[in-house]
Amino acid sequence: MKIKKYLFAIVFMLLNSFQGYSQTLRGMYINGFDNILGNTVKEDSLLMYLQDSSYNYMALYDLHTLDFSSTSDMNMLSSFIVKARQQYGIQYVGAVGETKSFFTSKIKSYNNSRTSADEKFNVFNLEFEFWTTSSVEPGGYYCVNYLQGAGCNCDTAGAFQYYMGMLHSIDSLAATQGAISETYLGWFNQGQGKQIQPSVDRILLHAYRVDNTSVWGYSKTRLGYLASNNQMVNVAPIFSSEPVFMGPWLQSHGQIEAYNQYETDFNADNSSWKQYINLLGYQWFDWGYMPKPVPGAGGTAPSISASGSTSFCPGGLVTLTSTVGTSYLWSNGATTRSVNVGSTGSYSCAVTQGGSTQTTNSISVNVYAAPTVSVIVNTPVNNTVPLSSNAIAGSGSISSYEWKLDNSTINGANTSEYLATESGDYSLVATNSYGCTNSSAAEAVVVPTTQCILTVPDGVFADEITESSAMLHWNSLPAADSIIIRYKIESSSNYIYLRLAYAEQVSFPISGLQPGTEYSWRMKTVCGTSTGSYSTKKYFTTSSPTGIAESVTHHAADVIVYPNPATTNIHLAITSDIQQQAQLTLADMTGKIIFSEKRLLEHGESNIETDVSRFAKGIYLLSIITETENILSRISVE
Questions:
Q1: Would you list the domain boundaries of the chain?
Q2: Among residues 634, 472, 589, 494, which one has the least CA distance to residue 551?
Q3: Which of 233, 494, 545, 604 has its CA 20 to 30 A from that of 60?
Q4: 451-550 belongs to which homologous superfamily?
Q5: What is the mean pLDDT for each group of 10 consecutive residues in the chain (638 residues)?
Q6: What counts of helices (H) and strands (E) characterise the chain?
Q7: Under a CB-based contact definition with an 8 Å cutoff, are residues 446 and 420 in contact?
């Protein structure tokens, strides 16, 4: 059963971590439950009190007086438990008993008769005070009713033996029922604590005092006993509202104050064994002694006010303030009257005044999402660098842009694009329709200073011709962005286009040619999106046998592909003599088509841009097929 205890502790701590203070155990013993069940006014008064005081667990006494063989009584019990869970936020409903037979014959049979988890008991609470001498000695209640019949001695040793047998049985039964095993403990020694710790899911530890100043010290030694196995143990202190204990103190203090002090003292303690104590929350004994009137039944309910707007951008804050009370418990765990809130959520406060606790209305706080923005540096064009943005509004829509150079605002630069004419670090500030702003990271931009000149290449010729390759030559060119080489089988209209960044080269090899085939080729210069005229057409014939050339009807057309190689987007500038439909196809070197779409080519130049970052790195063949021709171009993706 040790693994079960560890899992219970881990699950409970994870719930606390992920869901906040609302998961802390806040329990109440309900005495006289047999006089409450079936009375709608009493039921609702009890449940309203628990809800307004932020309880999530009720342990029910006097269940043994109910007729578990009565269908109507059990349906009434089921309806009450469902109402507590579904309407009043009660997560745990416990059955309190002092015998094994009570749990096996009554609680188990009741749970098995129910179909919904919301109808069932999910905590089995064993209450057997083996440490009470007057009850276990000869003539005492436990001696006469339990110990003698079980063959146990009528003393504390015999009572503890009887208790441990029941505890093991009830822990096993709870496990098969998907329930939590729980026991109430008053006084015990270290040896007894070592036996109890691995035998139950959680322990409610007696901490009855007249105020909250000594509750920790009162139970500290017994906590050390429970931790002496050096294994995790789940514990919640029990405080008493009886007149001889905290009843008078509660008339002017909030119920949560007892646990707040206990937790503060626990956290401040430096005992080495404390690492094995998982402090779950707290339990009160009992409903009958708690201060009345019932919260929510009348009077002015507490409320929350906000210092300003409850909707704002990241980094903003709003102060929420409750009406006056003696103690406060906010839904985010804060215990002050005012809290500063800077995150989205619904906030409420359980306010205690005069010993009664009520929960305020909820206020919703909404933190808008800020934009996300980045700068894209595009290919230089004629001594300029085009900049564009990739911006997501977050909340709402993008309402404005502001470009900056070296962190200084550029006057008039307030669109999503900017043409940089000087080098430096460029960033972009985007603002959404809710007024939330964010800035991109700065991008270093170098604007080229060399003037680009369009010329017609001359001195073109081919040599080093083999069956499948040739070396193309030309005379040195003035400065240019790039050059375009176009070649094809002379008898075909299928052009292959190569765009090369110009770096003063005067030759370029081409390969993959067909043997014994006549080719024609020419070239031109490019400055940004402008191109010069083609050079004179030149011819060469590859060596060896005659190859097979495609025969496609020729129709004058042209295509520019840039940048090539490309990493993100690639631009096609297609010139057509007429308006016509074209099929664009991109295939890898195995011939597998990876992209295909139809486009309408305008008379003149049509510009098409496509994203190639989704494709694997490599060489691809672009085919542009119209009614009269098939233009081919190689594309390199890096």
A1: 2-289, 304-367, 372-445, 451-550, 553-638
A2: 494
A3: 233
A4: Immunoglobulins (2.60.40.10)
A5: 48 41 78 91 88 91 92 95 94 95 94 95 96 93 93 94 96 96 96 96 96 93 96 96 91 87 94 95 91 53 89 94 88 92 92 75 92 93 87 93 95 93 94 94 87 86 91 88 91 89 89 92 88 89 61 53 86 77 83 84 78 87 80 84
A6: 12, 41
A7: no
The total number of residues shown for the chain amounts to 638
**Percentages (nearest 5) of helix, strand, coil residues in the chain:** 25, 35, 40
Q: What angle do CA 165, 166, 168 make, to 5 degrees?
A: 70
DSSP string, 175-208: HHTT-EEEEEE----HHHHHHHGGG-SEEEEE--
Secondary structure of residue 239 in the 3-state scheme: strand
**Chain centroid, CA 133 distance in Å:** 55
Burial of 328 (0-12, 13-18, 19+ CB in 10 A): buried
Amino acid identity for residue 329 in this structure: L
* CATH 3.30.1370.10 correct for 553-638: no
Half-sphere exposure of 109 (CA within 13 A, CB side): 11
What's the CA gap between 458 and 523, in Å, rounded? 9
Answer yes or no: pTM beyond 0.85: no
CATH number, span 372-445: 2.60.40.10
Closest CA to 76 of 65, 67, 85: 67
H-helix or E-strand spanning residue 75: helix 71-88
| Spatial strand order in the sheet of 327-330 | 327-330, 349-353, 356-359
Token pair 């047999």: residue: 34
